[in-house]
Amino acid sequence: MEVSKFLAAILQVKSWADAFGGDLYYIVTKYSGSLLLQKKYKDVEPTLKIKEVDGLELVKKFSEEMQSMLGRKVEAVERLVEAAEDADLYHEFNSSLDINYYNAVLINEKDDKDNYVELGDEFILEPNEHFNNLLVNTTLSDIQLPTNVYNKDPDILNGVYMSEALNAVFVDNFERDPTLTWQYFGSSTGFFRLYPGIKWTPDENGVLSFDCRNRGWYIQAATSPKDIVIVVDISGSMKGLLLSIAKHTIVTILDTLGENDFVNIIAYNDYVHYVESCFKGILVQADRDNREHFKQLVDELQAKGVGTVNKALTESFRILREFRNAGQGGLCNQAIMLITDGAMEDYEYVFEKFNWPDRKVRVFTYLIGREVSFAQNVKWIACNNKGYYTQISTLADVQENVMEYLHVLSRPMVINHDHDIIWTEAYMDSALFASQAQSLLLMTTVAMPVFSKKNETRSHGILLGVVGSDVPLRELLKLAPRYKLGVHGYAFLNTNNGYILSHPDLRPLYKEGKKLKPKPNYNSVDLSEVEWEDVDETLRTAMINGETGDLSMDVKVPVDKGKRVLFLTNDYFFTDISGTPFSLGVVLSRGHGEYILLGDTSVEEGLHDLLQPDLTLANEWIYCITDIDPDHRKLSQLEAVIRFLTGEEADLECDEELVQEVLFDAVVTAPMEAYWTTLALNLSDEAEGGVDMAFMGTRAGLMRSALYVGTEKLSNR
Questions:
Q1: Are 262 and 286 contacting, i.e. CB atoms less than 8 angstroms apart?
Q2: pLDDT tens for residues 661-678?
Q3: Where in the cell is it found (predicted)?
Q4: 444 and 462 in contact (C-beta within 8 Å)?
Q5: 133: buried, middle or exposed (CB in 10 Å: 19+, 13-18, 0-12)?
Q6: pLDDT, tens digit, for every residue of 292-302?
Q7: I need a surface site. Which of 129, 397, 483, 527 has the fewest CB within 10 A?
Q8: Are strands 226-233 and 262-268 parallel, antiparallel or unpaired?
């Protein structure tokens, strides 16, 4: 009896569920019009061309277009290098030169008598959408100097005067390629010439800490990859201020390293020990995570005991030799940075055994403090090992003195005039924080060194500075449009170090209160951290090696802000972007991104249906390029498409394939409007409640919607 009651209850619940499901299906199909939409696409099927997407061909095509776009940026930078080197060649240094120039902090500033201050003449600034609505001057560059550099120093004045020749090239580059953003020249003397010119504002303490020579693009362009062992004296004599200066020196050296460099830190007193015992006997990549880890450990160092520098030097040479012989590390420059308050002897026997006669390892010495008793030995060590000696007496001296080692390491490259093009890892453009989607905030920089071509100084290897230009990654990704990738499809970029340049799952910002801030390691997120189904790192390895190929993976994709998960099979296609350290990947989801429908719709027929009031286009997609010509910037994508089709804007550049798909979708989906309107007119209060609106979207980004209730009655406004 009990069993039969239980079975009856189950059947009752099942009948309720079936009835509920049936009613829900009836309501949804009726009010959405999905059956009508299916029929309309079925009716035009005989006239359709159905094209299968070749993922490998697609990724190669995208890569070639990206290579062409990045090539134009390189050409712009090369023109700047040529102009800067020629300007220096014909410039004679004048120690009494006195010129006025546009100082980025002082421009438009006036004194008590309403006169413009020195170096602060009138500088016209206007908002420019291409530069994120910042106030800029697109006819001139201006000069920024860090607070610790004197703005009337003869080296600065001569460099500024010489580099004025770049103004015309900046403007010409921008006219040739209107997609260019910031262009700049960072001088080895410390000034930074930026185009277009902007107003710089010091921090709340009146300090401008930005020094172009500390930036990753400058350091990477000025030097080749390097293996560095930092050796620091923590004997008892290094207590107090001396240890603070030594720690600051290490941190400053670490800040000059990047992903292509390798590093370790050895501290010595009575015995030699690695500041991180897990890194004993090896060098580690100087990525952001490792650098920050080293900084924390260095901060904890304490001074005690007696210094035994010979053992620390021996250990440093051993690591560098092993790495060199194994073909590991940067495979270019090797150096030891010795930070101490003095050396009792010159340790010639150590260098004789490990570094002479080839001197494959340069030794840079930093004498900490004002004491000069042992300066001679410390200087001898550097000078006899192709290095550089400097004395650091105060915390304020650290920055300038540390930067000297970069000039020494760059000397062979300068003498040989190796104009290597470098591309940086992704970094944040802070001006975009509030205005763009998270994954599209990132930039990369293309940079090249500028050398002195004067015959009398050529053998000295003088680096004049570095020129560069920023490339927003969103501009690159425009060349891999979403509509060609289908639902759940996407494109991503990564570097030959395995770090992501751009990926839909890269979220570089976090919210602190109401402010968006970059995560500490936002530009050193590895590909394996987002494509985590790639457990064997097959995809990662192939892309790091710049290979071309494809593979498939079963993946789980979160949707609706992580509330649901889809189980999909994704096909990955990848190739390198020639001439850069980047690789491009394209992902197509099976069942979604394998085919494209090509309809043959006339402009007249499609245009009529595009003008219906319920129709919109995905405004973040690029149907037409509206962000270059100022006259086009106020147009929505739908307005731009209509003007393109009617011939109102003959100079509008549009994606004709995508526009054709939109025309086709507009015609096929046009009957939906009449269907929804008829339903709405016949809707009575007694009819099915709870249906607020109907909406639909197509693969080409076309959307239609209709309200079944007044806006005041919407359940989710």
A1: yes
A2: 999 999 999 999 999 999
A3: Membrane
A4: no
A5: exposed
A6: 999 999 999 99
A7: 129
A8: parallel
